[in-house]
């Protein structure tokens, strides 16, 4: 029985395929289904204003290999190099990594081949300076990108969504695709052992702005029939309870008592459990990707809203007691090694200390709304923000309003304010000073014994970093480079690396490893393909990329 809200009467009871989740993965799948003439319903628990899910908020960075953008920046990349990097990062070591490994191989082929021309054919374009995320910092066989591969899409997240939303809306206009917003799926229904449809709650209408917490008031019930269901419901990062439950204590220590959330409230992870109740297996749930450079958003949109700093390599990183973090725990080098190290310190926060010169060139903030210049897609805005005086407006706003930012002229004043903010005198000013002075003494030569200073020189050998991302090495304690800035950093949740186990057609697999007829999963809910195609570590830009690739596979196979 269906009980529908006003305005939903046009919805039919039965479809060829139902897509659960109107984020990027669901939209890509639906666009492909529409192209194949499949009668499709997209169901989402949020209102229409949320269409696009997390991808709307994203920076729009895509992992691609050996592209014209890279070649123009004199980057020599290849499928072989990317494969070494991916496998060195993934460190697949489990029996259930069979399909994740297949997905990783398939995505690498896609990222080095069809991906860019296919997306470009749909109108997508990329900022010419390719970003160098997750640089690794240990051996060539270990984690990290050997070369820059993070392609920021013009228009950021909304620019990634646009071609797929356009395609889906065209199918909607032609009557092939329908949306059911404010429909929260609570069950995947079966009949005689086969997938038969979905059912759940109709949630009360909401007028909150995109990303804000909407109500969960139940106004009715629904059920729709379809023999093919694609689950594209996202990960668990907005559900701190689930994150703590799945936290890999053996590898990362205890979960932080205090965390902030890098994703909206709707990333609640519940649908993964619902798919499991229908027989789908989940794997690698203990693999997750949370950042260590989170700051509290001074103008929060969703609960516990945190923003990730995308740091260049120069900020000095100290633990809560003022000890400098050892390599490879350098800013932007190795996310999970840093998380592991910090969890061993017994404190939830850490600190960056930097200068005005560093913040101006090196601080970027993740998210479409924090980068209105890239999001606008206008060169004039980008040049003004990135090459003009001072840091970007968004970074300056954090400096002024963010509770985690401290700006002072002298180190003694800075450390006193850091202790005051922490509420405890954990930092010894003399100890901090000694470490900064020693580091500053390494700046006089174009080489150094300090791994971070060496890394700064290495970064500046890449044209893109030299141009817009890495400050010229300078002494932090020289007042000419000041004022000094300290930033208190929190652990910020983001991505779920494990999830629903799938084969290369995005078919969900049961506990016996066999496909469940009619059940598919893609995007973050499926660990971006296979149930965890990143293995233990991600190279960045592989989340949106994985949604596109696995969503496409689901949309081409289902129904
Ligand atoms: C600030 C930010 C910056 C990012 N930057 C990047 C980047 O630069 N590069 C990159 O690769 N990745 C980035 N990411 C990650 C990337 O955006 C996400 O991993 C990706 O968009 C997930 O898409 P999805 O379609 O799998 O899920 P989602 O976007 O989470 O969509 C899932 C949808 O399912 C709905 N849903 C869930 N459960 C139910 C249910 N029971 N019933 C009905 N509907 C349900 C939700 O309401 C939601 O709309 C970023 C993420 C954020 C938040």
Automatic annotation (TrEMBL):
Cofactors required: FAD
NCBIfam families from the UniProt entry: PRK12834.1
Keywords of this entry: Flavoprotein, Oxidoreductase
Domain FAD-dependent oxidoreductase 2 FAD-binding: 16-544
Pfam families attached to this UniProt entry: FAD_binding_2
Superkingdom classification of source: Bacteria
Entry-linked InterPro entries: FAD-dep_OxRdtase_2_FAD-bd (IPR003953), FAD/NAD-bd_sf (IPR036188), KsdD_DH (IPR014614), Succ_DH/fumarate_Rdtase_cat_sf (IPR027477)
Molecular functions per Gene Ontology: oxidoreductase activity, acting on the CH-CH group of donors
Name of the protein described by the UniProt record: FAD-binding dehydrogenase
